[in-house]
Amino acid sequence: MKLDVINLDGSAAGEVELTDGIFDLEPRADILHRVVRWQRNKAQAGTHKVKTRSEVSYSTKKIYRQKGTGGARHGSRKAPIFRKGGIYKGPTPRSHAHELPKKVRALGLKMALSAKAKAGSLVIIDAATSEGKTKALAAQVKNLGWKRALIIDGADVNENFVTAAANIEGLDVLPSMGANVYDILRRDTLVLTKAGVEALEARLK
Predict the structure, then answer these.
(1) Which CATH fold would you assign to the domain 2-45+98-204?
(2) How far apart are CA 52 and CA 90, in angstroms?
(3) Alpha carbon 149 to chain centroid distance?
(4) Count of H helices and E strands in the chain?
(5) What is the pLDDT along the chain (205 residues), one digit of tens a residue?
(6) Are 78 and 85 spatial neighbours (Cβ–Cβ below 8 Å)?
């Protein structure tokens, strides 16, 4: 499939041929869901923690005599049955990550790119360069109508462009190796540079 290429000022800059096996697949919600879930679980901190009966601060003395009280027998105020006692089987620090085959991850990225292309939300620009001025770049982005956009460049991202884009709300910039399903789907517009297209096609072939 072919798409027109534009410059950041909106002028035409030719066209580019996109690989059908990457940008023209039929998106599957189940694959996209699996990859996004894998990403979010892997990013989860998993630092939640409660104190067990061996960690709460109480005396280890038997709280009252065994017999003759008319109540239940107890030996420790740390037992989970008591207020401020230890928590039984509560959360402990752990990793929430789970395995997902590389082929499924790659397929999910292809489908995310294809979904944007089919929705007409894929834009190809010649290059992501800037003088480092946020005001100038913000004006260009506004003229292009990008409200929530992700820009994916090649292996290296222009430092001045990253600096200019840093304070623009709703605009994210990633190198090609940082391209991922979650960030692509959560933005309304996907913007690829010509270098980004080449890098993604080389990565996913």
Answers:
(1) Ribosomal Protein L4; Chain: A; (3.40.1370)
(2) 8
(3) 14
(4) 7, 6
(5) 889 999 998 888 888 999 999 999 999 999 999 999 999 999 999 999 999 999 999 988 999 999 999 999 999 999 999 999 999 999 999 999 999 999 999 999 999 999 999 999 999 999 998 888 999 999 999 999 999 999 999 988 989 999 999 999 999 999 999 999 999 999 999 999 999 999 999 999 8
(6) yes
Length of the chain: 205
Query: Is 166:157 a contact under the CB 8 Å cutoff?
Result: no
Within the chain, all domains assigned CATH 3.40.1370.10 are found at 2-45+98-204
Question: In this structure, how many other beta carbons lie within 10 angstroms of the beta carbon of residue 87?
Answer: 14
The pTM for the full model equals 0.82
Q: Which two tokens stand for residue 163?
A: 């600096």
